[in-house]
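pasting Carboxypeptidase regulatory-like domain-containing protein for the record, 107 residues
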Amino acid sequence: MSRCFFLTLLILTLPLPALAADFNGRVVEERSREGISDLTVRLIPPKAAGRPEKATTTDERGGFRFPDIERGRYLLEVYQGTTLLYREVVETDQETVKEIQLSRKGR
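structre below
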């Protein structure tokens, strides 16, 4: 068999880098570190990427999860109802875990 055939076979059997990863996190109250439930978390890709926006709600411990997110830059937003509480540009890579600390107003 030719050398070219073996190189082609080797390239085809190498594992491909993961194109998607989980993006997980938790929203907590800054002082008490208690999770905040029932917040809407949005992950918004750049318009040029042509990918859909994702949204989820925090659980009773403030946790959220976006499974199989394409790697790249996103705008991460957290809302309580229609009120924006937090916004940040994030970079998703292999397995991203984000903790968001929010402080209560008037304290």
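Strands lie at 20-29, 40-44, 54-57, 63-70, 72-80, 83-92, 96-102.
The radius of gyration is 19 Å.
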